[in-house]
Amino acid sequence: MRKPDTLLFVLGLGLVVLGQVYFLRLPQYTWDGIIFCALGALMWVLALRRAEEQGDARPARPAWYRQWLADAAAHPLRTGLLGLGVLLALWAGIGARRADPAADFSPYLRAWALGLLLYLLAFAPLRPRSSAPLPPCSSAPLPPRSSAPLPPRSSAPLRLCSSAPLLLLLLAAFLARAVALDEIPPNFGGDEGTQALEALRLLGPPLGNPFATGWYSVPTMSFLVAGLGMKLFGATVAGARMLSALAGTASVLATYLLVRRLAGEWVGWGAAALVAFGHYGLHFSRLASNQIADALLGPLVLYFLLRGLESRGDGHLEGDRHLWMALAGLFLGLSWYTYFGARLMTVVVGLCLIGRALGEGGEFLARYGRGLFVLVVGFALTVWPLALYYIAHPVDFLSRYNQVSIFASGWLDREIALTGKSAATLLLQQFWKSVSAFNATPDPTFWYHPGIPLLDPVSGVFLILGLAVTLWRVRRPAWGLLLLWFWALVILGWTLTENPPSSQRGVGTIPAVAILTALRLTETLDALRRLLRACSPFTFHVLLFTFLALISLINLLFYFQVYTPRRIYGNPTAEVADVLCDELERRTHIPPVYFDGPPFMYWDFGAIAFRLRDVVGRDFSVEELPEVDVSHGALFVVLAEEIAGLDLLRETFPNGVETPFYSEVNGRLLFVMYEVQPAQPGGP
Question: What's the CA gap between 103 and 107, in Å, rounded?
Fold first, then answer.
């Protein structure tokens, strides 16, 4: 039995044993045990079948470790960078784990970041680049006929003639995300405010632990990045949201680079335009929240991975493959520090590599083994400090899973008891809601709640065609990767979680959906060109840009002209907070605020806590009026739900100034502001 088959055999047996442990020791995670057993049994059977087919022949393997040792001796500088980088990253994780929670964590953060940088530099190519002139710009080939597997990919560097339009597209994407950030969406959500406030607190001084978890068990590293963003752009609503605008713009570039290599330049343009102006991505690019990182890290990791699998890999430290694999591992590790949905890319990459290994057999590890080792080490060094924290706090590692999983949270059992439906029926309903999120089922949460599917109707048609054709060609590697990416996120992020399709958990699908849509769009337009008997590529280009312009206009008009005036985002409490904060921020002097809102809303609501963090205020009820000191004035904010207490305020402080505030959308009363002036010296 060959080494790859032996590894497959041992891993399969180990997974079955792990599944049995789950059955006996963790019965609440029965489905996890079933998955482990099924995957392990499949790997075990495949290993046995391959061993039977190959017999006992054992071809000689090159001593790759000797090659690396020789390389290390020949390149002492690279070896030194590699060793120092690994040691710094390991030391940072151990030091952060042992440090007092009140300590300054900046030395550990610097050591970790420097260690990762040195790790990458150890694989940076030092050989001189070719000085041959680049080929002149020419029209890119048209998409192929429907019988072709994929348009020809492009591995050439970006030239000026393609870079200039790309820069214009990125500029347009950034403007669509950054203009009027403090006003669109008009409500500053409670979760946005909480995350922004967490970011300011983490920055200190002293710097808090960036390798831990905070609000809702979210890794604190994302708060650190948000805090640094506010250091650059200001601790305001627009400043807190600007980092998401930049990340959303970067996701356009990452998608273009991936698709250009995977399916050709014109498909890349189509996918990039769909990401740039799709209303779903636009919305999350304008929020002070970390979900938009999912749409950036997904295509970025796959781009680096594909470059690594396709680049020169002769076993030497300076091979291009190792640098790309190191980048893929590093960014895959960084995905664990953002929103939980980005972690699903680890599953996608793992399944992709397993599929390639099963398809290519022993040749896969012989060809890519060293590159995969570089990827795994880069991933491990990046995740290492957070992994140590999770080992010490296992509850935090599983907390979000336990909250939203239909199995761990008990949702499936409750629904079976309440509805009388079978588990299979409920799972089918969950699957339908998830897969139809882009064509039929609207987002049910106040994270977005657009009232329409997450994709415009024109793009939705081509997405359906894209999924159908991709399923037909699933045996081809490129199509298999797209399907794996899409379905893993849809099933793991939506189907197996409560309340699908919750938009905040599906942001990672945005580039995958754009690619599937762009593939079918370009192929359909090329077929239309042939029907019109137009031989010139110019006809195809006109058709493509016309359709992209139409789709972009539909999305932009919906988001800015239809969705924004509704003030739906963030639920009704966000509108109350937004109107209140707008009013108080206009004032030069704000007396102590008494907020009569509980149990419907509290003074520490995230948006209020962030925007009015320098204002003295607290929750109160009218029963506490005798305790209120109005010698320096007082500002009572009475929510519409507590309006009955306003009469007592009027009786107690008859000279107060009363101002009602109404919703601009439907005219409903939001709250009443009752202001009592400070007592005059010598007065009663």
Answer: 10
Residue 120 contacts by C-beta under 8 Å, 6 or more apart in sequence? 85, 323, 326, 327, 330, 378
User: Are 92 and 195 within 8 A, CB to CB?
Assistant: no
- Average pLDDT (420-449) is 95
CA 119, CA 124: separation in Å to the nearest integer? 9
Where does the pLDDT of residue 480 fall: very low under 50, low under 70, confident under 90, or very high at 90 and above? confident
Q: Is the model's pLDDT at 423 over the cut of 50?
A: yes
Average pLDDT in the chain: 86
| DSSP conformation class of 494 | I
pLDDT at 133: 44
SS3 call for 80: helix
CB 376 within 8 A of CB 520: no
Length of the chain: 684
pLDDT reading at 70 higher than 80: no
Tokens linked to 138: 């020419």
- Please report, for residues 383, 410, 415, 501, the alpha-carbon distance to residue 496 in angstroms, rounded to integers and kept in the order given: 25, 12, 14, 11
Contact indicator for 321, 369 with CB cutoff of 8 Å: no
- For 137, residues 6+ apart whose C-beta sits below 8 A from its C-beta are 159, 160, 161, 162
Residue 83 burial (10 A CB sphere; 0-12, 13-18, 19+):
middle
pLDDT of residue 473: 65
- pTM across the whole model: 0.85
Q: Give, rounded to a whole angstrom, the gap between the first and last alpha carbons of the chain.
A: 97
Q: If you write DSSP's letter for every residue of 195-235 in order, what string do you get?
A: HHHHHHHHH-SSP--TTSB-GGG-BHHHHHHHHHHHHHH-S
Q: How far apart are CA 268 and CA 270, in angstroms?
A: 5
| Both structure tokens of 376 | 């795994």
Find all residues with CB under 8 Å of 163, minimum gap 6, and list them.
none
3-state class (DSSP) for residue 286: coil
Cβ neighbours for 158, distance < 8 A, ≥ 6 positions apart: 166
DSSP string, 173-202: HHHHHHTTTTTSSSS--HHHHHHHHHHHHH
Which pairing describes strands 634-639 and 593-596: parallel, antiparallel, or unpaired?
parallel
Is residue 56 very low, low, confident or very high in pLDDT (cuts 50, 70, 90)? very low
**Chain centre to alpha carbon of residue 138:** 36
Bridge partner residues of 52 (DSSP) = none
Strands 634-639 and 669-676: antiparallel
80 residue type, one letter = G
- Among 291, 234, 302, 290, smallest CA distance to 485 is for 302
Regarding beta strands 617-619 and 634-639, do their DSSP bridges make them parallel or antiparallel, or are they unpaired?
unpaired
- List Cα–Cα distances, 73 to 64, 69, 84, in angstroms: 14, 6, 16
DSSP labels for 651-669? HHSTT-EEEEEE-TTT--E
Going by DSSP bridges, is the β-strand pair 669-676/593-596 parallel, antiparallel, or unpaired? unpaired
Evaluate the CA torsion angle 551, 552, 558, 561 in order and state its sign. negative
Query: How far is the CA of 201 from the CAs of 102, 160, 209, in angstroms?
Result: 12, 44, 11
Q: Which residues contact 630 (CB under 8 A, 6 or more apart)?
A: 653, 676, 678, 679
For residue 138, pLDDT beyond 50: no
Tokens 């609503």 appear where? 237
Beta bridge pairs of residue 639:
671
CA–CA separation, 473 vs 557, rounded Å?
36
Spatial contact of 539 and 554, defined as CB atoms under 8 Å apart: no
